[in-house]
Write a structure and sequence with these properties.
By secondary structure, the chain is of the alpha/beta class. It has one domain: Rossmann fold. It has 8 helices and 6 strands, in the order E-E-H-H-E-H-H-H-H-E-H-H-E-E. The chain has helices at 19-26, 31-41, 51-68, 77-81, 84-89, 92-98, 112-125, 129-141; strands at residues 3-5, 14-17, 46-50, 105-108, 145-147, 160-163.
Length: 168
């Protein structure tokens, strides 16, 4: 399906947001992602995501903080898990992630029906679990737009993928 630049998303669009967009914005790696989230905050666009995406963002930003502070060498959950005392003192990740709750983002709760819908989508499209859950939400709510930097969605019919082009 079509792939467009994130800035081309029309005003008034409903769009599902993948985890990498939040991560690039929160880590200041993409001005395009930050600008997109600002558009959501202004209600130019209705940004929609899932609780699973928020959990993934939280996990990945926590790992990034642990690396940045020198507690682990690379973003590896096993390394951090072995240091429960370190996990207790990490807090910057939550300060960043909690900002997402104050902008105009609709966060869909985890529903059994979506979990069941995701399984055949994984098989048909060859998607990983979290990506299939995103696609199940798109399918469930009839949303035709997805903002992601992930190329795994580029071949899926029925959706237009919007991507940032300034990832550093």
């Amino acid at each position: 399906m079509p792939v467009q630049h994130i800035g081309a998303l029309p005003v008034g669009s409903d769009v599902v947001i993948d985890a990498n967009i939040f991560i690039y914005a929160l880590s200041n790696r993409s001005q395009g992602c930050k600008a997109f989230l600002e558009r959501c905050a202004r209600e130019d666009i209705l940004g929609i995501t899932t609780v699973e995406v928020i959990n993934e963002v939280t996990h990945r930003v926590m790992l990034a903080e642990a690396v940045a502070k020198g507690f682990i060498q690379r973003e590896n959950a096993s390394q951090l898990r072995a240091q429960s005392s370190t996990i207790k003192i990490l807090s910057d990740y939550w300060t960043l992630v909690s900002r997402l709750f104050s902008i105009n983002i609709l966060i869909l709760g985890l529903e059994e029906s979506r979990v069941l819908r995701a399984s055949p989508l994984r098989k048909v499209h060859g998607l990983m679990t979290n990506d299939s859950m995103i696609l199940a939400a798109i399918d469930e709510f009839g949303i035709g737009c997805l903002v992601t930097h992930d190329s795994d969605f580029d071949h899926i019919p029925g959706i237009t993928v919007y991507k940032p082009t300034d990832i550093t």
